[in-house]
Amino acid sequence: MDSAEAQLEAFIAKFSPDIAAEASAVLARLAARLPTAHRQVYDNYNALAVGFSPDDRSSNAILSIAVYPRWVSLFFLQGAGLDDPDGILKGDGSQVRHVVLKGADDLDRREIVAMIDRALAAARKPLPASGNGPLVIKSVSAKQRPRRPTAKPV
Question: From CA 97, how far away is CA 105, in angstroms rounded?
């Protein structure tokens, strides 16, 4: 296992076992589906994010996942212009839309598969046709919110 893979595993391990397992499973499925994508890791203040891009530029990323203390979301980074006939996308920003995943099996749902297909087809820059994209740790925030859910006040 290379250093970037080990670092990503350590970032994921900060989360509760259930969220960590879900994040690992989602990442594995997306990496298998998008083997040529450059995977860019950002261990940010609010969440752990992993983008899937055709190159080393984060501005070209097509999809990403964000891992939060209580859920994992799939982001369509060029999603505002995508057709959403099933109404699954959330958000109203000028570019990004997302879906909160209930588990890695959601990636097999017909409407999510179709949305990923639309996002890949509409990407400003397509993923490479061959090769294996690298995993790169792009940034790690010195200050981060807790990665495990905090107790809610009674």
Answer: 20
Can you point out the beta strands (E) in 62-104? 63-67, 72-76, 97-101
pTM over 0.90: yes
- Triad 88, 78, 3: Cα angle to 5°: 100
pLDDT in tens, 75-104: 999 999 999 999 999 999 899 999 999 999
Q: Quick check: 62 and 127 in contact, CB under 8 A?
A: yes
Answer whether 116's CB lies under 8 Å from 99's CB.
no
Count CA atoms closer than 13 A to 71's CA, side-chain side. 9
Interval 129-139 mean pLDDT:
95
